[in-house]
Amino acid sequence: MDDNILAWNKKINQNIISLSMETTKKVLYTAKVHTTGGRANGVAKSDDGHLNIKLSTPGTGRAGTNPEQLFAGGWSACFEGAMDIVANKLRITLPVDTAIDAEVDLCLTGMDFSLQARLNISLPGMSMEVAQRLVDLSHQTCPYSKAIKGNVDVKTTITV
Q: What percentage of the chain exceeds 70 in pLDDT?
């Protein structure tokens, strides 16, 4: 295994121990969005005006996006940012054409709604061993991945 990966693994384990002893959380950013009308005929607007979208239920053909698309877009963007952080710490370079295709399913079992998801990650030219380690550490770094761990079935596929 690459020495940088071993060093990073040791460092992240030490950081996990020291972070678990911390009790203060620093808020880096707060997103504020006002939504009316729900998923069927809703509108969501952020307080800074950067987000102003119509919402619609998947499969209805109405104009607008849906919460699953918003989650897929936010999670994949955040995950790629996490991969960049991890790559910098490992002293490796992400391929210029790194890409993530996120798929989020809205599921119904009986009367119970749930989500399941897939991250299809393309890291052209990277070895599979390094790519796998990068993705594993990125799941430990990405706030979205951490938020859904144990709550949403996630399948990650890597293409090198």
A: 88
Determine the number of helices (DSSP H) and then strands (DSSP E) in the chain: 5, 6
DSSP annotation of 42 reads -
β-pair type (99-109, 112-122) = antiparallel
Distance CA 142, CA 80 (A): 9
Tell me: the pLDDT tens digits for 45-58? 999 999 999 999 98
The token duo for 142 is 């990405």
* DSSP state, residue 101: E
Give the full edge-to-edge strand order of the sheet including 52-54. 33-36, 43-46, 52-54
CA pseudo-torsion sign 139, 13, 94, 131? negative
Query: What is the Cα–Cα distance from 93 to 157, expressed in whole angstroms?
Result: 20
The string of pLDDT tens digits covering residues 3-42 is 767 667 666 666 665 555 667 899 999 999 999 999 888 9
Q: Strand 33-36 vs strand 43-46: parallel, antiparallel, or unpaired?
A: antiparallel
- Main-chain dihedrals φ then ψ at residue 124, nearest 5 degrees: -60, 130
Q: List the beta bridge partners of residue 119.
A: 102, 156
Q: How far apart are CA 40 and CA 65, in angstroms?
A: 10
